[in-house]
Amino acid sequence: MGVKMENQVIQNRLKALRELMKEEGIDYYMMPTADFHNSEYVNDYFKVREYFCNFSGSNGTLLVWQDGAGLWTDGRYFIQAEHELEGTCVELFRMLDEGVPSIEDFLEQKMGQGQTLGFDGRVISAREGKKLEEKLAGKKISFAYEKDLAERIWKERPEFPHGKVTVLPEELAGRSTEEKQKEVMDKVSQAGADSFLLTKLDDLMWLFNIRGCDVECNPVAMSYGYLTKDEAVLFIQKNVLDEAALEYFGEKKITVKDYWETVDYLKALPGGGKVLIDSRHCSYTLSKTLAERQAVVEKTNPTELLKAVKNPVELANMEAIYLKDSVALTKYIYWLKTNIGRQEITEITAADYLEKLRREIPEWIDLSFPSISAYGANAAMMHYEPTSHNHAVLKPEGLYLIDSGGQYMGGTTDVTRTVALGPVPDEAKKHYTAVAAGMLQLSNARWIYGCTGRNLDILARQPVWDMALDYKCGTGHGVGYILNVHEGPQNMRWRFTDGMAEAVLEAGMDISNEPGVYIEGSHGIRIENIMVAENDVKNEYGQFMHFKTLTWVPIDMDAIDLSRMSEIQKNMLKEYQQRVYEKVSPYLTEEEAKWLKKETEVA
């Protein structure tokens, strides 16, 4: 379908939506990027926002009114959104840019007294719903929150996800579900609640030691959990459970109820209880349901921090998997550099080849996210994804960025390398060198316990800031264990906006380290390793900490300008490259190892 025709389709869909809004008495209708659990990545069934505006990024909210429409998204997606919204008559609102109102401020400014805001309350978080209530209270705005208008327009909507559920053996999980439940309920009691409604999918998988396949690349199953000190109830689609899963739940004394019974179950609870919810992930609809008869205690899911601090079994498995994954990526870079210009390689075939190498690893399950395979100017779009209709052919010149990862029985990987395919312009070399220096500085950080990612972010960003440049995203995020590739509460950034968690870095937390430079129309550079926080020396000043690196893939010396590095930075580079060779070369062919030896030499 051509761009012009595709955009006309979007305009027709918006026209149908506006007609339905008028019929329902809705003045503004809001569609976020979310499922019933406010997940970051969602099944195709929930891609309502994309259906109505063509924007395919993982974060954004579409707002539609009778004479306009706007999409709010963050800096990772500005370039992508401009391309995908072109010709749709949907205006792009660049979140956090100077002078750009938040969606709440926009609604407060634009909505008239007594008007109606519509949305599907199952895909709006309780926190967002509460913010809207407070912001719009002065205008006496009505909320029509039981309105999934897409259901009446999207005739070929994909079916609701219902993939198979599997049990994660305790020898892989490291801890039993009983241990986890007890620790969670201790935290719930400390928070002043007597029960806990858990709605976040990856937390549910971690707690019950199960995995699913209801979201692409994310091994999660559509589910809810309700816990008291005496009982654990799992709401899940019963038709996805085989005999082994049912037997496991029986052994672990987990009561299984159907996913679609959740609301009725909550309505039937005895009144007067105190239920803990995390308003970031619990839906507006469920929080309203609970509040009718229960005291709602709004706190961060205790599962989030417990899940983030990996246990010894998880850490040992991750270290082994990351080495295997690093070997695959190193082989891939060798293949690229020796075949570029000799055979046609596209962004798609390049990503496919890397996936083929990963599939040869015995523990392979799936990709951990759709690979970002981007050549030249395409790499300036942080979350670019090539398609059969829109992709570039790699040439023996310039830079190519590959951000990818795998799901394995033993860990989830995420790694980015930017590769020189031939001659690299001086400006791009300057930028690459700064990014590499920042990544290495953060890798070698030493800090005192109590620091968060806010304290350390400058180490990665400083070489980029020195050039009066910046990257419009955080520097790092947690990574799940055979779970979602993005995980909190730990993260690395200098600015925390409303709703973002800022967590102390604990021993056992893993975190990505991925500074970058993105020059629209020219090039994009990102170098990403995964690290684990560990305890270091403890003395009268406190507990010192450092990072242990898990990723061992060479930094491309063809794109480095050593004259722009300090002696300390050069030594960091030399040490890292040496360790890459030591760890990876035993698993390479003689030819590959010879190449890697040269690739990791720092003059």
Please explain how this structure is put together.
This protein has a 6-stranded mixed β-sheet. The protein has a 6-stranded mixed β-sheet with strand order 12-11-10-8-13-14, sandwiched between helices. 36% of the residues lie in helices and 20% in strands. It is globular, with a radius of gyration of 25 Å. By secondary structure, it is an alpha+beta fold. The chain folds into 3 domains: 151 residues, Creatine Amidinohydrolase, Chain A, domain 1, CATH 3.40.350.10; 142 residues, Creatinase/prolidase N-terminal domain (Creatine Amidinohydrolase, Chain A, domain 1, 3-Layer(aba) Sandwich); 288 residues, Alpha-Beta Complex (Creatine Amidinohydrolase), CATH 3.90.230. A hairpin with a 2-residue loop joins strand 27 and strand 28. The model has no long low-confidence stretch (mean pLDDT 94). Helix 5 packs across helix 12.
Total number of helices: 19
The helix fraction, in percent, is 25-40%
Q: Enter the CATH topology name of the largest domain.
A: Creatine Amidinohydrolase
Mean pLDDT: 94
**Which CATH C-level class of the largest domain is it?**
Alpha Beta
CATH architecture of the largest domain: Alpha-Beta Complex
Work out the number of β strands: 28
Instruction: Provide the low-confidence segments as ranges.
Output: none
Q: Please identify the structural class as seen in this structure.
A: alpha+beta
Question: What do we call the CATH homologous superfamily of the largest domain?
Answer: Creatinase/methionine aminopeptidase superfamily
Strand content: 15-25%
As laid out across the biggest beta sheet, the strand order is: 4-3-2-1-5-6
Give the number of domains: 3
Shape: globular
> How would you sum up the major sheet?
6 strands, mixed
How widely separated are the two ends? 52 Å
Radius of gyration over C-alpha positions, nearest whole angstrom? 25 Å
